[in-house]
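Journal club side-thread
Mid-discussion, someone asked how the predicted structure for our own chain would compare to the paper's figures. Pasting it here so we can look after the session.
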Amino acid sequence: MKQATPALAATLMLSTLAMGHALAAETGYNIWTNEYTVSRQQLQSAIAPQFPRKLRYMDIFDVTLSNPRLGMLPGENRMNTVVDAQIANPLLLQRPVNAVLTLSSAFKYDPATRSLRLDAPKVDKVDSTDLPPQYAQQLTALGNAAADQFLRDYALYTFTPEQMQMNGKRFEPGKITVEKDAVKVEVKEQ
């Protein structure tokens, strides 16, 4: 990952979503609705300690990601992450470039690995008063290619065999729904 945009997009989404194991104890199962629920606040609390995050781009740019803010997009059944970014290079830039990046991803279940995975990750928006609009469009296009290449199928959470069995019956996650303040995963009998 020598290019800044792949590293930036990958680190942002991986940092946002690499807390599946930490959430296992907090993830709630509702026996009445047959759903596992992970709240937006649980996700936010899990990623906060991973920032600020520093990256190196093409061995000449220093990129710092900070202040992650998670949001839910129920109408699109996606989760988004907004993060502040600062890009610096004393040789090429008179001052650091500041930007706000918004990325989003859907989810899918992989039965072979019993894992909840990212699906169709993308950069939705790049905002910067320090960057001319034509560069923001290029960064968004590169970010989308990188997000797809590096983050598609990334495992967010792996269910244990014990979570998928009860009273001699086997269960499997079904429909995944992003709600206003949580991600819900339906559990159905096989």
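Post-session note: The domain at 4-26+48-158 is CATH 3.15.10 (Bactericidal permeability-increasing protein; domain 1).
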